[in-house]
Amino acid sequence: MVTEKEIxxxxxxxxxxxxxxxxxxxxxxxxxxxxKDDGCKxxxxxxxxxxxxxxxxxxxxxxxxxxxxxxxxxxxLVLSPAWTTDWISEIGKKKLKEYGIAPPEDEVDKSVLFADxxxxxxxxxxxxxxxxxxxxxxxxxxxxxxxxDCLEPFDYFKCLR
Amino acid sequence: xxxxxxxxIRLGDDSLIIGHRLSEWCGHGPVLEEDIAMTNLSLxxxxxxxxxxxxxxxxxxxxxxxxxxxxxxxDREYKNTLLVExxxxxxxxxMMRQFLFDAYRKLLFERLVxxxxxxxxxxxxxxxxxxxYHFKHSSEWIIRLGDGTEESxxxxxxxxxxxxxxxxxxxxxxxxDAELIEAGTIPSxxxxxxxxxxxxxxxxxxxxxxxxxxxxxxxxxRKGMHSEHLGYILSELQYMQRAYPGLEW
Lengths: 161, 249
Fold this sequence. Notes:
The structure holds 2 protein chains of 2 kinds.
Chain A: H1 4-11, H2 24-27, E1 30-36, E2 39-44, H3 53-67, E3 72-77, H4 90-99, E4 101-102, E5 130-134, E6 142-147, E7 153-157
Parallel strand pairs in A: 2-3, 4-7
Antiparallel strand pairs in A: 1-2, 5-6, 6-7
Chain B: H1 3-23, H2 32-60, H3 66-71, H4 82-85, H5 91-112, H6 118-146, H7 150-167, H8 175-182, H9 192-206, H10 229-237, H11 239-243
Helix pairs in contact in B: 1-2, 1-8, 2-6, 5-6, 5-7, 5-9
């Protein structure tokens, strides 16, 4: 009989298809694992409403757990409580930086127009002299920055609260 | 008529149609960053649509999915406001439409997070986080363009003059809303329009734009009476499902 702990460990082998260094556990999208008589139920929550990766994540969870011999797996998508970047694990943030994506920082108040954008250190050279290019980047969860010192353009996993 | 179904359809159709309009900018943005921004916004709206129409289908209880509702209704069955179906025009026109709409959605979701209906509250809480980014983005563009050059000011003022007549429909309320508020399903919307006018007014004033004095109001979308533009949107939006029923990929 498989334990809940083992299932969590298996889920650490399921990666986000768009940020392949992060597992679904690092990302904080797995809310709960429930053991059932002959299988389990995994409750996940989307990062953004329109995140196209959710279906793929669901399929990947099914595939991984089937591979581990768990026969009946149900994946349920819930919207509440709404996902926040605060749920990305510390390890996850480290992995993001190593991959070249700046991890989420404390955000500036979005209701202040033209406020100085959040200072995001460059993931390549650690300079804090960087600039926001666009609040909307290569995927829904990222903004686009550039480093003024090493000139590297980079993705910033933007804060969502 | 099922009031809850109708209410959720109205929310969902606003998201669907403005999301589709934004998607029309894909590959046509004035600069690459804005091309990407508008498709990002579109994706958020289509995601919100999926949650809302899925729930509408569950409320209706006739087995219709979010895809059935998005792709297989006729124009009169769509309940979005006229504002969101207006053509993109130039970038200034699109940003003005977005700004008027984002200001409304932000205030609306701030109230709906307290809805007793748990699904509506959950969708509102999720969408609100995204809407804050949207509203900041469109507000800043309105100020940049309005308080920009003579030409950008003129263009965005023309957009405001054109779109202003459609804005009041965002606050259209009828027996559907009354029934849900009475039952406590959704919170009261009293004072929402005044809050919106204040929020919009602050940005427009900073943008040195003038709110039109002509108060002619044009509505109808909430009752399924649309401008000619919706038919063209639907013919593109529904093409694949109409030509190849049940198509999946």
